[in-house]
Amino acid sequence: MAAKRIPKLTSTFIRNRSQSIAATPDEICPPQIRDIQKVKPYNSIPGPKPIPILGNTWRVMPIVGQYDVSDMARVSLLLYQEYGKIVKLSNLVGRPDLLFLYDADEIEKIYRQEGPTPFRPSMPCLVKYKSDVRKEFFGELAGVVGVHGEAWRKFRTKVQKPILQLRTVKKYIEPIEVVTEDFIKRMLEMKDQNDEMPGDFDNEIHKWALECIGRVSLDVRLGCLDPNLSPDSEPQKIIDAAKYALRNIALLELRFPFWRYFPTSLWTRYVKNMDYFIEICTKYIDEAMKRLNTKSVKDDKDLSLVERILANEPDPKTASILALDLILVGIDTISMAVCSILYQLATRPDEQEKLYQELKRISPDPAEPLNSRKMEEMVYLKAFVKEVFRVYSTVIGNGRTLQEDMVLMGYQVPKGVQVVFPTVVTGSMEEYVTEADQFRPERWLKQESGNFKFHPFSSLPYGYGARMCLGRRFADLEIQVLLAKLIRSYKLEFHHSPLDYKVTFMYAPDGELRLKMIKRDL
């Protein structure tokens, strides 16, 4: 970034200014100079003080540590409450400093100034796995998850069009609806004598999510909703492997990163788990590829995402690796978001009734198939989901590794620092959100939005810019279809002690999701 030109300070300039009694502040000291004088050094940013040798790493260690890395939502809030809108967690052994930023304007500035290849500081363990441990498998096609720079940009350019085009996404309403209807039938089978879901209902939601991903990306039904599915089945192992890969990231990345230098037991398990995940998923992907060669397509809505990519990309490995990324990240993220949304619906009867009345008006006959017109009319449904994401941000934050020096909150921050945007905190700050402590889906409705202030960079569930979540449109569609089909015909209740929220990889209710499912009078 080019430096601003600063007026030359001659002795005549200084003398003339000092002799002017009525001089304005700008005349005494030009803004350019005053701004430079105000910039404070990086080492003066507030934050926990490191100790010799261990730095601040001891704070995230088990037992003796001050911060529980398994609950980064609470850690983010504690740092803000103690130190303010910019907090430096420095001297972390084996990794760059973390700079927590709680100012939506400054967050926006970083996003607006990033180039075509933003560096998202996430999953260095996955980066090492893809680029080192399994380099022979991924090669130059490492995908979009845990990849940075030009390699990421090239891969994303190849695959993003069919995934982000809204008209393409709408073609998948029907197959997702079919899977979802099967899931609701499965829910009816799972109910106990009190009409409640089993204690492991969250795992059943994971099965629905995987079944949707398989149908959309590979045009295959994986059999996840089979009532006789064994705990040792391949679909269940895919779910377990994806959970393990994502839910151990904090342990690998924030505590002593010995795994970077020698194979720790946790790293060894992580690699073994990822190897197994790739082995099983690749088998299903290869089988799907073979079917494509003999498949008769009558309508382009019958095409899977893999087929759409292969239509323009000659290397089948590109489609395979995209499918792996979609399965790896999509299962747990969508599932835990759904757990949160269903729990909030079950514990907010007034809002659930408003949603039901909207669905009843749009779909008088619940047996009629959904379509894009109906989905567009479900404005309260979408508003409810947005409000859940704001108050209970499923992704507790985002971030960037600075690619150049920047001034943030008046401090000079050098390139290479990892800036964290804790949207789980900023999305509930009164200065950015009107009635931030109130759950108000109405704030997202067009006719009501003028009554509510909302800073768009205070809550970004899917990120922003070039690295915005690639699968966001499909995630939204799957969630909307599930809510539309379920709430139109059934009422949800929750008659147990309130659940606390906890971070696994996502921020979601912690405990048994024993939802009560009651048939509505249609």
Main attributes of the structure:
alpha+beta; single chain; two-stranded antiparallel sheet; globular; Cytochrome p450; 522 residues; disordered N terminus; 21 helices
Structural description of this entry:
The protein is α+β, with helices and mostly antiparallel strands. Among the domains are: 11-38, no CATH class; 140-395 and 477-519, Orthogonal Bundle (Cytochrome p450). The protein has 21 helices and ten strands. It has helices at 11-19, 25-28, 31-38, 72-83, 104-113, 124-133, 135-138, 149-164, 166-169, 173-190, 201-218, 234-247, 249-254, 265-294, 305-310, 316-346, 349-362, 372-377, 379-391, 423-426, 472-489; strands at 86-89, 98-101, 398-401, 406-408, 411-413, 418-421, 490-493, 500-503, 507-510, 516-519. The strands form four sheets. A four-stranded mixed sheet has the order 1-2-6-3.
Break the fold down into its secondary structure elements and pairings.
Layout: H1 11-19, H2 25-28, H3 31-38, H4 72-83, E1 86-89, E2 98-101, H5 104-113, H6 124-133, H7 135-138, H8 149-164, H9 166-169, H10 173-190, H11 201-218, H12 234-247, H13 249-254, H14 265-294, H15 305-310, H16 316-346, H17 349-362, H18 372-377, H19 379-391, E3 398-401, E4 406-408, E5 411-413, E6 418-421, H20 423-426, H21 472-489, E7 490-493, E8 500-503, E9 507-510, E10 516-519
Helix pairs in contact: 10-11, 10-21, 11-16, 12-14, 12-16, 14-16, 16-19, 16-21, 17-19
Report how far apart the termini are.
63 Å
Helix content: 40-55%
Which CATH architecture of the domain at 140-395 and 477-519 is right?
A: Orthogonal Bundle
Cα gyration radius (Å): 25 Å
CATH topology term of the domain at 140-395 and 477-519: Cytochrome p450
How many helices?
Answer: 21
Corresponding CATH superfamily of the domain at 140-395 and 477-519: Cytochrome P450
How many individual β-strands? 10
Q: Report low-confidence residues grouped into runs of 5 or more.
A: 1-29
Largest sheet: 4 strands, mixed
Describe the global form: globular
Structural class: alpha+beta
Integer average pLDDT: 88
Give the strand line-up of the largest sheet: 1-2-6-3
The CATH class assignment of the domain at 140-395 and 477-519 is Mainly Alpha
Task: Provide the β-strand percentage band.
Answer: 5-15%
